[in-house]
Amino acid sequence: MTNEAVNNLTDFPVPPFKKQPQSSPGLASQMNPVPDHGETSYTGHGRLSGKKALITGGDSGIGRAAAIAFAREGADVAIGYLPEEESDAQEVIELIQKEGRKAIALPGDIRSEEFCTELVERAVAELGGLDVLVNNAGRQQYCSSIRDLTTEAFDATFKTNVYALFWITKAALRHLPKGASIINTSSVQAYDPSDILLDYAQTKACIAAFTKSLAKQLGPEGIRVNAVAPGPYWTPLQPSGGQPQEKLTQFGEKAPLGRPGQPVEIAPLYVLLASDETPFTSGQVWCSDGGTGTL
């Protein structure tokens, strides 16, 4: 974010929003309003100078905001994303390159263990190493009743949100040095699940437990593991099946700040956890939910 004072009640979009259905996985460029990922609003201060980072889901939403922030803080960045998200991804690649940093595009489907391993190996080879892993890519599709939740959909959510996290982290550990940081994206849904997000909420609870357990494993190796738990954030997950359109129009209104968060607002948490400024912080889940106080 910039150094200018921010008014939480007037400087950001508030509901009601227009209905805007998209097919999954959705594109940030087609949202109204277009999310603020920090394209013009994030100012870096060299806090990640020389670091090399891999961010999954780096084409849009929170992953995009983290990628932009990391580059402006001095890191080289590789982003993973689905091939359908190429147009959004290329915008991110250009933004990273404008900062004079190395930008690596790695399209593919992380529901494949083979691709997850390839993703890490290509990132390491092209970046010349790996210091920070951000497991951020996620699948969210609402379903009103367990009676209608298919095994195929349930499996797709767990493969994307949990299995890929396991596969990518395991592959990355062959390369992460002492002092490295792993940052996972959980959710307030892990602690206060919505009735229509049964499978998604379960995966986010898995991520919180994974984070705490792995932090205990890797602590003796000098590798920190933390998670960020977003509340309602304005990202392509929401209009592309993450929420019913009638709920999307009022998305974020129940937060005490009366609006959804913009991705740029959570990027500083990822920067802090990736930096060398929090060497004693591991096994934590940091929440940003607009004042609800879920965690």
From TrEMBL:
PANTHER family reported in the protein's UniProt record: NADPH-DEPENDENT ALDEHYDE REDUCTASE 1, CHLOROPLASTIC, NADPH-DEPENDENT ALDEHYDE REDUCTASE-LIKE PROTEIN, CHLOROPLASTIC-RELATED
Lineage summary: Bacteria, Pseudomonadati, Pseudomonadota, Gammaproteobacteria, Enterobacterales
Top-level taxon: Bacteria
Signal sequence, start to end: none
The organism of origin for this protein: Pantoea rodasii
Family: Belongs to the short-chain dehydrogenases/reductases (SDR) family.
Compositionally biased region (Polar residues): 1-10, 20-32
InterPro entries: NAD(P)-bd_dom_sf, SDR_fam
Protein name as it appears in the record: Uncharacterized oxidoreductase YghA
GO molecular function terms noted in the UniProt entry: oxidoreductase activity, acting on CH-OH group of donors
